[in-house]
Design goal:
By secondary structure, the protein is mainly α. It has two domains: about 200 residues, no CATH class; about 190 residues, Alkaline Phosphatase, subunit A (3-Layer(aba) Sandwich), CATH 3.40.720.10. Helix content is about 60%, strand content about 5%. The chain has a four-stranded parallel beta sheet with strand order 1-4-2-3, with helices on both faces. Strand 2, helix 18 and strand 3 form a beta-alpha-beta unit. The longest helix is centred in the first third of the chain and has 29 residues. It starts with a helix and ends with a helix. About 25% of the residues are buried. The model has no long low-confidence stretch (mean pLDDT about 85).
């Protein structure tokens, strides 16, 4: 790079950095200067491409040389960019100002890793990456269609459950065909041209490109300056991954894959600090119970909880669900209740119901990560302390989501699954059969009891493949056709 080119690069970087400082210092995200701030966003974004031009323009004199000697790497680069763009378009992801630079940055890192590896290891790394990345994007697209979110490798423990639950929900689309085609094509081109290609150039110069791309990522990132708006920060989004959909929109699927792999390799060492913080918080924020109008109104009564899978009040009617409607109208109706829509909603909802704790969205499936925990303040243990018999029942087999371990930790005296109750593979899909065959386990005639029942009929798939749907479809359809 000539002296003039270096000067142009430094000036362009300085101008873009100055624009960012102006935006942060004078145009806070307080809703009063959104128009001007948006202009600054676009100026920074456009200026960043000017920086890229000055960064890469010295290479244009050697384009043919670069092409002839680095075809295999260029094919991988094109493969990633094409899949990222198609993936975003197909799933209606709103890429932001930082998206392009974050993808370019991580692709450059992969390029450097490949270049620094010995020749044979580099070839293995490249081929493995082509296959894994394509398969990953394929799986994420399928997963997103079902859950409207993306998965993490840490949730691999629920793979079996996910396959069982969604085996009849796969719908082929053009992106899947494109991904398979791109994997095959990229592998063919890579292998075809690999022997003729070995990176030629000063590897130290690669760090310059990485450094500038990293700078551009940060120049185009969102910087809320108030703590109350921390969740709007791209840096907070990247470190917390509180929303994987938002993460992919901002950083691309390849960054989620990279962060996922790193999180598996490098363990989280912050647990001890978190535990100390939580213990300290509860010790210093204890709230004594204050009697109210509901205190002891159900003292010494028995309790049966029915956790209805996917139930919605749209199903409430005098004709179809008279008993449930009666409970709603004549009992206590708690409407201020919300369930986080995590990929493993059923399992996490069971934890919420039993403990009043919101599970982590980062630590992986609660039913696997925390199935050895003891929950001393769970609802089952509260009843145990009052000499109740506590039982939990579900019409699926008890090992699903490791419920045989989870419910032991929750304090239940017994957990009865499909085989303990005596349900066949077809009968377990019908809640009425489950209820009928569970009576003797639910109702204890000799002692006070608390029983929790988890239904299955409302579980996916939501088509006639579901035996419960097939049985009741005509009745429900006729009712709503008549109603409307």
């Amino acid at each position: 790079m000539t002296h003039d080119k270096k000067q142009q690069l430094y000036i362009s970087v300085g101008v873009v950095t100055l624009l960012l400082l102006i935006r942060i210092v004078f145009f806070l995200k307080d809703g009063t200067n959104d128009f001007i701030e948006r202009i600054l966003f676009w100026l920074i974004y456009g200026g960043s491409f000017v920086v890229l031009y000055f960064l890469f323009s010295p290479l244009k004199q050697n384009l043919l040389y670069i092409w002839n000697n680095n075809k295999s790497k260029i094919f991988i680069f094109a493969y990633i960019i094409v899949l990222e763009v198609l993936f975003a378009l197909k799933n209606n992801l709103n890429y932001t100002f930082v998206s392009a630079f974050s993808v370019l940055f991580i692709v450059s890192l992969f390029f450097i890793v490949s270049v620094l590896l010995p020749r044979m290891l580099a070839k293995i790394f490249d081929i493995a990456f082509i296959i894994v990345y394509g398969a990953y994007m394929f799986a994420q697209d399928f997963y997103y269609r079902i859950f409207s979110d993306f998965f993490s490798f840490i949730e691999a423990g629920t793979l079996r459950e996910g396959v069982e639950s969604s085996s009849n929900m796969y719908v082929f689309n053009y992106l899947h065909l494109v991904i398979v085609f791109m994997i095959i094509l990229t592998l063919f081109l890579y292998i075809r041209y690999y022997d003729k290609n070995k990176f030629k150039g000063k590897k130290i110069n690669l760090l310059k490109y990485i450094a500038v791309l990293f700078l551009l990522v940060n120049l185009n990132a969102e910087y809320p300056v108030k703590a109350a708006r921390l969740h709007l920060s791209d840096h907070y989004l990247y470190t917390s991954t509180y929303s994987k959909t938002r993460f992919v929109s901002h950083f691309g699927g390849i960054n989620l894959l990279t962060k996922d792999v790193i999180s598996l390799i490098i363990p989280d060492v912050s647990n001890k600090k978190h535990i100390e913080y939580i213990n300290d918080y509860y010790e210093n924020n204890q709230k004594p119970h204050v009697d109210n109008e509901y205190t002891n109104i159900f003292k010494d009564k028995n309790l049966i909880i029915v956790l209805a899978e996917s139930f919605d009040d749209i199903a409430l009617s005098e004709e179809l669900t008279p008993s449930i409607l009666k409970l709603k109208n004549e009992g206590l109706d708690f409407t201020n209740h919300f369930t986080p829509v995590f990929p493993r909603t059923t399992c996490d909802t069971e934890i919420i119901l039993n403990t009043s704790l919101i599970p982590s969205i980062q630590d992986g499936p609660t039913c696997y990560v925390y199935n050895q925990n003891s929950y001393n303040t769970s609802i089952a243990n509260l009843f145990n302390n009052k000499d109740y018999v506590t039982n939990a029942l579900h019409s699926n087999y008890k090992e699903f989501y490791t419920r045989h371990l989870v419910y032991k930790g929750l304090g239940y005296n017994n957990f009865y699954g499909q085989h303990e109750i005596g349900l066949s593979d077809s009968d377990r899909r019908y809640d009425e059969v489950f209820m009928d065959m569970s009576k003797d386990y639910v109702i204890n005639t000799e002692n006070k009891f608390y029983s929790m029942m988890l239904t299955l009929s409302g579980h996916s798939p939501y088509t006639n493949v579901n035996l419960a749907v097939e049985k009741n479809y005509d009745l429900v359809d006729e009712y709503y056709q008549f109603k409307h």
